[in-house]
Amino acid sequence: MPRQNVCLALCLMGAALVFSAPAVVAGTLISELFYDASGSDTGLAFVELFGMPGESVDGLVLEGINGQNGSVYTSLALAGVIPADGVFVIGDDAGGGASLVPGSDMVGDVDYQNGPDSVVLRGPGGILDALGYGSFGPTDTFAGEGAAAPDPPAGSSIARLNPLLDTDDNSVDFGVLDVPTPGTVPALASVPLPAAFWLFGAGLLGIWSVARGRTPIPGGRVAAVAGS
User: pLDDT tens-digit profile of 72-116?
Assistant: First the structure.
């Protein structure tokens, strides 16, 4: 990936902090989740994180929270460093420590249940991000943020529409991708930003993107935007 793209991304993140926009994030976030393949999920499921390049993920933990009773049914301790593009992919273990997810930065058990369920990213100081997906009933346990993201059809994933924003509402932050795109996050999407942030970034938005220097799955696009 061209170095200037990463630089622009970091500039935008820095500007967001300067303008003290409450919805703009500075930490590591869940950027895409794929848990329901067409057929067996083993080795194909993945969680994608977006964060500061060079930052260690040691000490972070991904938890799967059962929507039916709130129990933690899987917990994975992360290890490694976020690459220069800011995208860290955890591919599901297909057996023997290998994954079928291209370009995985780490391999582990991330074959989460279909919704309604939640995935929580924890750090030493508490919860960094949480994604609840599916249709939660009155007796179900929602461990995400705001309202739930959709439960996409088999073969599709849910992805954060703007990697620089966290409104603390999964239904606003996430949409459905027809085709999963591990290792790639979209350019800044049409999500409302503070006026000062738009003034700073207006000349950069058309050329900024963060995408790993590996071939993404062709045809990936936003198919539906929750709450739109």
Answer: 999 999 999 999 999 999 999 999 999 999 999 999 999 999 989
> Would you list the DSSP string of 156-205?
-EEEES-TTB--S-HHHHEEEESS--TTEEPSP-S----HHHHHHHTTTT
Could you tell me which of 74, 5, 77 has the C-alpha nearest to residue 35? 74
CB atoms within 10 A of CB 200: 18
> Per-residue pLDDT for 174 more than 90?
yes
Q: What is the span of the domain harbouring residue 85? A: 3-225
Whether 146 and 171 have beta carbons less than 8 Å apart is answered as yes
Q: Rounded to two decimals, what is the model's pTM?
A: 0.75
DSSP 150: P
Contact 162, 189 (CB under 8 A): yes
The total domain count for the chain is 1
Dihedral-angle region of residue 103 (phi above 0 means left; psi in -120 to 50 means alpha; beta otherwise): left
Cβ-in-10-Å burial (0-12, 13-18, 19+) of 214 comes to: middle
